[in-house]
Specification:
The protein is α+β, with helices and mostly antiparallel strands. It has one domain: STM4215-like (2-Layer Sandwich). It is built from two helices and five strands, in the order H-E-E-E-H-E-E. Strands 1-2-3-5-4 form a five-stranded mixed sheet, with helices on one face. 13% of the residues are buried.
Length: 172
């Protein structure tokens, strides 16, 4: 299974177990808040995970180490003029993500404005990971059958043709 899939499913399991009363929808980000009328229906509060950058460097044996950046778009529907409950949800999400101990470090929080009756915040995280997908131990083996090589044949090199080659054979 893909490492990105493993990370996503770990977070989804955490939400379903630890935040089931606080978060009703968790999916991959596809700009759902901006295109809510065109999207498949979802319940609020909602969290959408966006993989942003993965900067890789080669390690040994075909493995790669990567610094993955991900942003979680957290949205709450509210008709209140001022609804501070989202701050509690942001803290709960941060704590739960830290508690599953897969290595995420929070790097940024930012309010995403201009959504009708929806408060949206973005929490960004980084994680350093090792991707062994192409590791030499995971590669398919190619079976090679050797052809027969007769090593009992005499090879004669003409020293007149190849200057500087010495041979013990007389060439006639």
């Amino acid at each position: 299974m893909s490492l990105k899939t493993d990370i996503y499913l770990s977070i989804k399991a955490m939400i379903e177990e630890d935040l089931k009363d606080d978060i009703k929808t968790f999916r991959l980000f596809n700009n759902q808040f901006e295109h809510e009328a065109d999207e498949n229906a979802f319940l609020y509060p909602a969290v959408f995970m966006q993989y942003e950058n993965i900067d890789y460097i080669a390690t040994t044996g075909g493995s790669q180490q990567g610094d993955l950046s991900a942003t979680f778009h957290i949205g709450v529907e509210s008709l209140k003029t001022e609804d501070l409950a989202i701050f509690d949800l942001l803290d709960k999400f941060f704590k739960a993500l830290t508690d599953i101990n897969i290595g995420f470090t929070r790097t940024r929080e930012q309010q995403d404005i201009d959504h009708d009756n929806i408060q949206v915040w973005q929490q960004s995280y980084k994680i350093t990971m090792t991707d062994d997908t192409a590791n030499i131990h995971n590669r398919r083996r190619l079976k090679v059958t050797a052809t027969t090589l007769d090593v009992n044949k005499e090879i004669i090199i003409d020293p007149n043709t190849y200057e500087g080659i010495r041979t013990h054979k007389e060439i006639s």
